[in-house]
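Write out this protein's structure.
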Amino acid sequence: MHSYNYLAVATVVVATCCSSPAACAEVYRCVQDNGHVSYQQIRCHQNSKPLALNYHRSGWTALRSGERALLDSYRDKDAAQKRKQPFASPEAGKDAKACWARQTRLEAIKSKLRQGYTLRESKMLRRQRSNHEDYLRQFCSR
């Protein structure tokens, strides 16, 4: 049990120490007699040399001009869609209510299917679920 705690502490210490290239220690590649390779901070032999580590700093970088133009075009399209007002007709309110009613019925059927049902109810519930999903897909999708 205690070995896990030591392992966790060692992992945090190594991650903290090597968070920047200036704070990172030298790393040596050691090959043992049986062929096992290990990497460590202590020299294996007198003539061992540290590995050259390529440290690439990660983080935020500015967008390139093509990426900036693409982002701006997406933002313009989104703004245009938000400005565009949908045509409000009396039927639109009825359609929204019908879609809402179908959605609530579908949720009730799905709830019943999750809770359990008799063998006699199963065919009917699955058929109703399919019918409601088809209706919503055909008439209520945006």
